[in-house]
Amino acid sequence: MTPQENFEALFVQVLNSLNSCSRVSARVVKEVGQTVAEMKVAADELSGRMRRESARANKAEKRVKTLEAQVAQLNRTVYGSSSERMTDGDVSQELLDMEAELKAIIPADAEKKSGKQPMKLPVGVKEITRDFYPDSMTCDGCSGDLTPMKTKKYTRIEYQPARVVVFNDTHHECRCNNINCSLRQIKRKPVDRYLDWRRTIGSTLINEFAIQKHYEHIPVHRNWFKLLVAGHNISRGALNRLVNDQAKKFKGIANAITNHVISGPTIHLDETFIKCVHPKEGKKRGKPSQATFWVMTRNESRFNPHAPLAASFYYSPTRKGEVAEELLSSGSVTAMHCDGHPLYNRFKVKLIVQHCFAHVRRKFERAVDAQGSPFAKNIVRTIRTIYDLERTFVGSDSEERAAKRQRHIRPVLEVIKRDLENAQSADGLLEQAIKYTLSRWDHLCRFIWDGRLEMDNNLVENAIRGLALTRRNSLFIQNEDAGESWAIWYTLIETCKLNRVDPRAYIGWITDQLNLTRGKIDPALLVPWLCPVGKYTL
Question: Which of 12, 222, 230, 494 has the highest CB neighbour number within 10 Å of its CB?
Fold first, then answer.
C-alpha cells in the first residue's frame, strides 16, 4: 500500500474507534473528524510537493550526468583517450573466453612493425647528381696533380619554392606574297593552350591555387597575399571564379568517376553540410542556408583488388534523401554502407543496408570516459579484438570472408547482444549506447552473411576529412556554382589519394591531355587510376 492509502485506512480506523466508544459525544467525534480531514489535505499537499521536488531532483541529476558526459567528451577531444587499464568488470565470462580465443586466432605477424623504417625516395622525382672536388687539384708540397682516392656520398631532399613566370605569346599570321599564286594562303600556328584561350592567367597557376585550397587546405586569401608580395595584384574574386571555371573543364572526368562508383556492387555513403551564402532558390539573397555534400566511395580492395578505388562528391542545396536515391537509381548498386541516421531507412531503392560498427564503438567509448563503466570498457575491448581479427581476412574472396566471419565472429556478436539485453542499472550515455546498438542490431550484423560488406563506414568518412578541413578554413561557399566546383575538385583529389596518385601531378597530366586533344578525348581515359605519372607508395 502507498503512504496515502495507509493514512486513509488509519483515518477510517480512528473514526470507527470513536463511534464505538460510548463515552465520546457526537460533537467530539465530529471535531476529530474535521481535524483528521484537514491533516489529510495537508498531507496530500505535502506529498504532491515531495513528488514535484523528486522529479526536479531526478531531472537535475540527469542534467548533471549529461554535462559530465560532455565534459568527458571534450577532454577526450583535447587530451586524447585515457590510458587506464580495462578491467573485466561485470561482463560475462563467456564473452571473455571468446575474446581470448579470437586473440589466439590472430597470427603474430599481423602486428604492426615498430621502430624506425628506412626512408624511401619519392618515385619519379628529379634527381641532380653533383661531384665536388677540392678547389685546387695541385699538391701544396710538390705542386703535383692530385688523384681521386675515395668518395663519400650524401643524399638529401631539398625543396625549391614555386615561381610565377609571365609568358608574352605573339602569334604571327603569315601569307604568301607571290602575286602569281592562286591560293595566297594565310597561315597561323594554333593556340597550344586550349584551356587558356582568352585568359590572362594560365591553367598551371589556376591548378596550383585549386590544389593548395582543396588538397593542402590553404585559403585563397593566403595565396593571394603571396602573389601580392611577389608583385602580382590579382583579385581574390577573380581567382575564385577561375578555379570554379577550371572545375567545369573537368566535369566530364568527375562524371566518369561517379559512373564507376555506382556501377559496383557495394558503396559507402555519407553526407556532410556546408553553408551557402547566395543560394539560387528558396532563400533570400545574402542569407546563408545549409547545403549538403553527398559522398560515395567504392573500395573493394579487401576482397577484389582488381577493382579501381574511387570517391564521388555531389553538391545538393538540400539534405533530402531523394537526391541520393536519384544518384543510386542509375547504377547497379545492391548493398550500401551508411551510419544509423533514419534518413537512410526511408530510401525507396531496395538495398542491403550495413550500419557502422565504428559508431557503436564511439558511443561506448564516450560512456567509458563519462561514467567509467567496466561493462562499456569490455564491450569496447571486444569490438577492437573483432577488428583485429577482421584485418586477417583481408585478401580472401567474398565467400571465404563470409565463412570465416560466421565461424569466428558470429558467436561473439551473439554473446554481446545477450549481454546488452541483460545489462542491469544502465543509465546515462551507457543506456543510450545500448539502445542505439540493439535498435540497429540486424543492420549491424549484415556483414556476417555477405563477404562484400565491411564492418563500418570509415572508408567514406576518411574521404570527407579533406573537405571538412577546407570547410573550417573557408567557413562557407559563395554560391551553388562554387559548391559544384568543390564537388568536382574533391572527386578528383580524393580518388587520386585512394589510388596513391599525387593530385598535383594528376591535375597537370589531365590539363596537358585536354590541351593536346583540344578537349576531344573520352573522359573515361583520364581517370586517376589510368594516370601514368605521380604514383607513390607508402
Answer: 494
CB-facing half-sphere around the CA of 532: CA atoms within 13 A: 3
Q: What is the pLDDT of residues 68-97, one digit of tens each?
A: 777 877 776 676 655 444 444 555 666 666
How many angstroms separate the CA atoms of 507 and 257, rounded? Answer: 15
Whole-angstrom CA distances from 322 to 267, 398, 404 are 17, 30, 37
Burial group, residue 335, by CB count within 10 angstroms (0-12, 13-18, 19+):
middle
Considering only 105-114, 222-231, 255-264, 369-378, which range has the smallest mean pLDDT?
105-114
Instruction: In whole angstroms, give the CA distance from residue 476 to residue 464.
Output: 16
Residue-wise burial string across 370-380, b where 16 or more C-beta atoms lie within 10 A, e elsewhere: bbebebbbbbb
**What is the tens place of the pLDDT at every residue in 361-376?**
999 988 888 888 888 8
Residue 215 C-alpha cell reads as: 588538397
Domain segments of the chain as ranges: 3-77, 190-356+457-538, 357-444
Whether the Cβ atoms of residue 267 and residue 333 lie closer than 8 Å to each other: yes
- The DSSP annotation for 250-280 comes to THHHHHHHHHHHHTSSEEEEEEEEEEEEE-S
pLDDT 10s digits, 132-161: 778 787 877 787 787 887 787 767 666 666
Rg (CA), the chain: 36
